[in-house]
Design goal:
The complex is a heterotrimer of chains A (308), B (356) and C (368). Helices cover 70% and strands 2% of the residues of chain A. Chain A is an all-alpha fold and 308 residues long. A two-stranded antiparallel ribbon of chain A has the order 1-2. In chain A, α2 crosses α9 and α6 crosses α7. Chain A is globular and about 60 Å long. With 356 residues, chain B is mostly helical. Chain B has a single domain, classed as Orthogonal Bundle (ABC transporter involved in vitamin B12 uptake, BtuC). Chain B contains 14 helices and 4 strands. A two-stranded antiparallel ribbon of chain B has the order 1-4. A two-stranded antiparallel ribbon of chain B has the order 2-3. In chain B, α3 runs antiparallel to α10. The longest helix of chain B is centred in the middle third of the chain and has 30 residues. Chain C has 368 residues and is an alpha/beta fold. Chain C folds into 2 domains: 166 residues, Response regulator (Rossmann fold); 158 residues, Rossmann fold. In chain C, strands 12-10-9-8-6-7-15 form a 7-stranded mixed β-sheet, with helices on both faces. A 6-stranded parallel β-sheet of chain C has the order 2-1-3-4-5-11, sandwiched between helices. Classes of the chains: A mainly alpha (308), B mainly alpha (356), C alpha/beta (368). The interface between B and C is large, with 41 and 38 residues.
Chain lengths: 308, 356, 368
């Protein structure tokens, strides 16, 4: 029982830390802009939040700085990809490299310095006391609780609101939106900026929630996992959540299996989350299924009014 | 009232592309100069030293070529796939598996005389990378499963496999780092006498030339371009898409696998635990910056490697290593942004005209 | 300091001197040590909170003790990838151009390339963290097992009423096995029934996996654990779940004050001091090999809130006994985890076997 509780709660903690970035990327890609720089922006979020935490001891302020840092990177990225119509793949890689370098540089002074300030686990009254479910769902930190609302809210936004309809059109057929008098450029700017801010929050999950320190390159590839999960989820936040939970669950399971099933080389357990993701991805998106979803048609294509 | 507006250029010549790129590299340097100045150093002095060390000395160029070799092959591999709009993010893993196959041949393969051994080694590395890419190509061709995710995930698996082998069964005796035994003398690529450059370099140039010819003069190369431009058009033309997906991804992976070959047989002489070291990802950037032109890939790779190596020069002057990384990112961003002015020109409109 | 037979070493180095057509392989004589210019090569940034930081602090401390001005005479090269020979070569050339008398390779992966470069720059001394492999490099290594033995001993003493200890390990490499085995041997010294459950990250650096592994150990009933990982992820996970650990590489107490009892720390300074001094006065022997324990392989100060004074005293006693030779860590009888006898009663394992560590000792569970 304890084992199950810790597997599930571990999976949730892991999942949430990639889901902020994943949801950010989902909105960005839905709007037609692919951002490969997730890892770099996460690192910027992680470092900016941690520096603020060390210097001000104010968690709210740290969180706002994280959002702001992400948004600034988002504006730059939007300027490059939307206004200048630059290639999204290279821009993303450039953001990745730039963010990695800048975060390492800025973080020099706080590396090894303890902030002793983070999103602590809070047990929700009554719910936290529930047997089994309590420790899994209701003894987590604020960023996890926020995610409980963000997933349904983003689902609602994308599929049930007028704005969501425009968002989907933005990634499928921006010319039609333009003809209808909508400002394609402004909308893309908004979603790209929002997406980057969310990626930065994922970074904060790493430096201010799951662990509480800064070290250069500390996200160690999480950004790429988030990026992969977005396509895995067919740009649907619910499926994204399932994918992230699956990935987190299997990596937690792997470390347990090392103890309880020791005859298998541990490298197999380490590779298991990736193998499982590939298999699940093929099974859920292969066109042998009827509900096969393609990527947004305008993804990676800069909108150009003149070639409308 | 005069108003500025943008107008699309109809064509752009090779020369103007070159000039434009140079202009924006220069702008990028100015921008980075501000960063260097901001952390308290004289940008002119820093640049002067960087260029003289990295590009104006024969030693510097030799080292840039050496560091650039795996980047070139990853860049070539990636650009083959991207030409057909296949997002192969898996060069990193294909490189690793290429190296694994190479090491397996060196360890267990038959002893072949002379150049035959080296050729067989190269074929093994190519096969390794190609097979690894096929793991993504098959689902893509038959079930339309997005290749960017599968290639990316396969990178992690390949790297786990590589480090397992290098730290485990294949680890060199007496070493406490994860690497295999030194490659046998007859399998190592020799240096060009006098130049101290590995013969791998002319080999890579030949590969690039062959690719160039392949794109330009063969029917298959033409088909790849057609599919890349428009899938529907290709279907109407009766081009076999499935076959092309398989072939192109296999070729792309095989080329990345050859990066393992040049690094193993030409440079390190050992397969190491973390051998690819992000070359596969850098290859993506290089492929894009070269606009998938195989010959330009070679040049851009050397420039990239030179910039990387010059981080040593910058650091010894006291500039932190991260600044060198940032500069790489900044240069890329600005050069990409400059691409915009390749496609548009700014014209001033006397009548005010339409707003845009 | 324990050294190889001096005669052999001298013979080897003079043989090398001959190979280079009579050019001297020793640095010019009689330089004042404060004028020594030192270059160091790191694969990451030096503020990595782990290996590189410990090494860099060792260099700084040695410089301070010898009166070397680190702002002018210490050249630090960061992010020099071990997989890129041309980059390493560029870094070394830069250091030599800037007058470096000695270049330190702070990670084992530089060894083979530095050995080649030594032939190109015979006037420079190359010091490399490595086992004794190359004849033209000053190689140095710390007997990490001495400090890890104390760490295991401490954990087993604290772990009253239970025999189960845990260990979070990164990758399956010789140095990591050394840490695990020494921890297990130390635990056994305190409690003959103690066992150490290892969980592997299979990665040098991955916070999620490290935290997961620590959590898994805690869930399986482990309360005290050792670690061989480069981040405070394990200590912080322990803190959240009411478990305790011994930090690694550097003093990690500040990152998790309620969980870190002490930390295993690398103290490279004494080795560097000796190498720098000898380089300066020209008496350095470039085939020398350092393999030091004692003050180099230590535990940081105890966390007084967590470790009672009598336990502290017992650990210090063990430390003294190791130093005096009363405790022979690799003295027989030692069995491996499959029951084979590794070292017979009354014998001691050779340094080569200690360094290679292709085994796990008897009370390790989950070895590879």
């Amino acid at each position: 029982m304890n084992l199950l509780i810790s597997l599930f709660s571990g999976a949730i903690v892991y999942a949430v830390s990639v889901m902020y970035a994943g949801i950010g990327e989902t909105f960005s890609e839905r709007a037609g802009v692919m951002n490969l720089g997730v890892e770099g922006i996460m690192l910027m979020g992680a470092v900016s939040g941690y520096i603020t935490a060390v210097n001000t001891h104010n968690l709210l302020l740290s969180f706002l700085v994280v959002l702001l840092t992400g948004a600034v990177f988002g504006l730059v990225f939007a300027f490059l990809t939307v206004t200048l119509q630059a290639d999204q793949t290279v821009c993303g890689m450039a953001m990745l490299i730039f963010g990695t370098g800048l975060s390492g540089f800025l973080g020099k002074d706080v590396a090894g310095v303890a902030a002793n300030l983070k999103f602590e686990n809070i047990s929700i009254p009554l719910l936290g006391k529930l047997p089994f479910l309590g420790p899994i769902f209701f003894q987590q930190n604020l960023l996890v609780y926020a995610m409980y609302f963000i997933v349904p809210a983003s689902l609602f936004y994308i599929y049930k609101t007028k704005q969501g309809l425009y968002l989907r059109a933005l990634g499928e057929n921006p010319a039609a939106l333009d003809s209808a008098g909508m400002n394609v450029f402004a909308m893309r700017y908004a979603y790209v900026t929002f997406g980057c801010a969310m990626m930065a929050v994922s970074g904060a999950c790493v430096s201010l929630a799951n662990t509480n320190f800064w070290s250069s390159g500390m996200t160690a590839g999480k950004g790429w996992i988030a990026f992969a999960l977005v396509a895995f989820s067919s740009w649907n936040p619910f499926k994204l959540m399932m994918g992230a939970l699956l990935f987190g669950f299997i990596s937690c399971l792997g470390s347990n299996l090392q103890i309880y099933l020791p005859s298998v080389p541990t490298e197999i357990y380490s590779a298991l989350p990736y193998i499982a993701t590939i298999v699940a991805f093929i099974l859920t998106t292969g066109n042998f299924r009827k509900s096969h979803t393609a990527q947004p048609a305008a993804l990676c294509k800069p909108y150009d009014r003149e070639s409308r | 009232m005069r108003k500025l507006r943008l107008e699309k250029k109809s064509t752009s010549s090779g020369l103007s592309i070159l000039l434009n790129s140079l202009l924006f590299v220069a702008l990028a340097l100015v921008f980075c100069g501000f960063i260097i100045g901001a952390v308290g150093f004289n940008p002119l002095e820093v640049y002067g030293k960087m260029f003289s060390k990295a590009f104006l000395s024969s030693r510097g160029i030799r080292k840039a070529i050496e560091s650039g070799l795996p980047l070139m092959l990853c860049g070539l591999g990636v650009s083959v796939a991207f030409r057909m709009n296949l997002n192969n993010i898996g060069a990193e893993g294909q490189y690793a598996v290429g190296a694994i196959f190479g090491a397996a041949f060196a360890l267990y393969g038959p002893k072949l005389p002379g150049i035959l051994g080296i050729l067989a080694l190269a074929v093994c590395c190519f096969t390794g990378g190609a097979l690894w890419a096929l793991l993504s190509a098959a689902p893509k061709a038959f079930w339309d499963v997005d290749e960017s995710i599968t290639t990316l995930m396969l990178n992690y698996i390949a790297l786990i496999l590589l480090s397992y082998l290098c730290l485990g069964p294949w680890k060199a005796k007496g070493q406490n780092v994860g690497q295999t035994e030194k490659i046998a003398e007859n399998l190592a690529l020799p240096e060009i006498s006098g130049l101290k450059i590995s013969t791998a370099f002319p080999v890579v140039i030949v590969i690039a030339l062959l690719l160039f010819g392949f794109y330009k003069y063969t029917a298959s190369g033409y088909q790849i371009n057609v599919i890349g431009k428009s899938l529907t058009a290709a279907k109407y033309a009766g081009i076999n898409i499935k076959k092309n997906i398989i072939l192109v991804l296999a070729l792309s992976g095989g080329l990345a696998g050859l990066a393992g070959f040049v690094q193993y047989a030409g440079i390190t002489g050992r397969v190491q635990e973390n051998m690819p070291n992000n070359a596969g990802y850098t290859g993506i950037v290089i492929a894009y910056l070269s606009r998938f032109n195989p010959l330009v890939v070679i040049i851009v790779s050397i420039l990239f490697a030179g910039l990387q190596n010059s981080s040593a020069t910058v650091q010894v002057m006291g500039v932190p290593a991260q600044i060198a990384t940032m500069m790489q990112g900044a240069i890329m961003i600005i050069v990409i942004a400059g691409d915009f002015f390749q496609r548009y020109k700014i014209v001033s409109d006397k009548k005010g005209g339409r707003a845009s | 300091m324990k050294k190889k037979t001096l005669g052999l070493v001298l013979a080897a180095s003079s043989a090398i001197a001959m190979c280079f057509g009579g050019t001297t392989v020793f640095a010019e004589e009689g330089k004042d040590v404060s004028e020594l210019v030192i270059g160091e090569l790191h694969y990451s940034v030096v503020e990595d909170g782990g290996w590189a930081q410990a090494m860099h602090e060792g260099v700084l401390k040695a410089c301070e003790n010898l009166g070397i001005d680190t702002s002018t005479n210490l050249l630090t090269m960061e992010e020099i990838s071990e997989e890129d020979p041309a980059l390493i070569e560029s870094a070394v050339e830069e250091l030599v151009d800037n007058g470096a008398d000695i270049i330190i390779g702070c990670s084992t992966g530089y060894a083979s390339i530095l050995s080649e470069l030594q032939e190109e720059f015979p006037e420079v001394v190359f010091a490399q963290q490595n086992n004794d492999v190359y004849d033209n490099l000053v190689e140095f290594q710390i007997r990490g097992y001495e400090g890890m033995f104390q760490a295991g001993y401490l954990c087993a003493l604290m772990n009253e009423g239970s025999n189960e200890l845990g260990f979070e390990a990164s990758m399956d490499e010789g140095s990591v096995r050394t840490a695990i085995n020494a921890f297990a041997l130390g635990a056994k010294y305190a409690n003959p029934d103690a066992t150490v459950q290892v969980v592997w990250a299979d990665s040098w650096y991955d916070l999620d996996i490290e935290s997961n592994n620590a959590k898994t150990l805690i869930d399986s009933g482990v309360k005290y654990m050792g670690m061989e990982a480069s981040s405070p992820a394990v200590p912080q996970t322990c803190e959240e779940n009411g478990a305790f650990c011994v930090g690694y590489n550097i003093n990690m107490q500040e990152s998790a004050p309620k969980a870190v009892m002490t930390s295993f720390v690398w103290n490279w300074a004494p080795i560097f001091e000796d190498i720098f001094q000898k380089t300066a006065d020209g008496s350095i022997d470039i085939s020398a090999n350092y393999y030091e324990g004692g003050e180099c392989s230590q535990l940081a100060e105890f966390n007084a809130d967590l470790v009672p004074e009598d336990v502290q005293a017992k650990v210090v006693e063990v430390k003294d006994k190791i130093a005096s030779g009363e405790i022979n860590i690799y003295g027989g009888e030692i069995k491996d985890d499959k029951g084979n006898v590794l070292v017979a009663e009354g014998e001691t394992m050779s340094d080569e076997d200690i360094l290679a560590q292709d085994f796990f000792v008897e009370n390790v569970k989950g070895g590879k």
